[in-house]
Amino acid sequence: MRDELAGFTIGVTADRRRDELAALLQRRGARVVLAPALRIVPLADDSELRDATRICLERPPDVLMANTGIGMRGWLEAAEGWGLAEPLRAVLSQAYVVARGPKARGAIRAAGLHDQWSPDSESCDEVIEHLVERGVAGQVIAMQLHGDRQPECTEALEAAGATVIEVPVYRWAPPTDPAPLHRLIDLVAGRLVDAVTFTSAPAAEALLRAAGDRAETVLEALRGDVLASCVGTVTAEPLVRRGVPVSAPNRARLGALVRQIVDELPRRTVTVKAAGHLLTLRGHAAVVDGELRPLAPAPMAVLRALAATPGKVLSRTALLRTLPRGADEHAVEMAVARLRVGLDAPRVVQTVVKRGYRLRVE
Predict the structure, then answer these.
(1) Where are the domains of the chain?
(2) Hey, which residues does 163 pair with through a beta bridge?
(3) Which residues are within 8 A (CB) of 47 and not within 5 positions of it... i.e. 6 or more apart?
(4) How far is CA 279 from CA 261, 306, 323, 347, in A?
(5) What is the pLDDT of residue 221?
(6) Which PANTHER family match (predicted)?
């Protein structure tokens, strides 16, 4: 098949670049569930940002720690609105500029500033280690925050003798409409998506927070059937800390993230031979002898259960446990019938009288 992700369902938790990421995944055949876990609230009119800007003008920083491209652009745009853009650029041009990643570096250079250093890992920890080793005692450091405060970074620099000016350019807030996020949580808990993408660490935290008392169920799904795909190691940290095996590209880019998913998801599929056919199970479809056959959730659940133990007879009671709550044994029969029609290979699923069903593997 030309569409590498055809038959897979992927959740997207990003807000700002969700359409771009969704388009990249859909272009490769995936079904996408959009569910922003957070939204960015700009602080252009916020008094804290204005105060931090004035402090930078009064006490020109020796070091500028630029964490994000959107943050640096937002800061300079806000300063433009206050008539402070040129004075701010003047003081920042004298600072030792550290750009945490390429997006921050791009914003720095677009503003006519010059960056002197960036970490290979794009992590704040490596930036702090570099600055402390370089020596910051007696220096003023302007730290452009990315979302929430980073007290551990500030404290480490202050412990090394620096004065830190925290610059809050935007903050995270819950999505305006939480319904899509709760729907995605339902899908993850029910193993009805194949992967969930994360482009920021706060988004991962927000998903688990929104899950509430189902957070452990969601984590168990992410530890097993559902791939947690993160844009980079910094984004992955909240999940790694909770024992989730994550997939992350070497370069923190959306294109690289999609390529990683294209490489990894097909390798996680189950392939069986039954009744002379080759079946590969994907998230919401089966590939039968190279042909994609989309299936509804109930027939797909039955096929997964049968494919887990090819040739073994599963009773209606056992298959009933794979279906949504409230289903009865008649629902199992209907799901099997729909499965046979959907596969367009009726001999694949064999009825064993008075016992149940199995995949015909002989």
Answers:
(1) 9-38+175-268, 43-170, 270-359
(2) 140
(3) none
(4) 21, 12, 21, 13
(5) 95
(6) BLR5956 PROTEIN
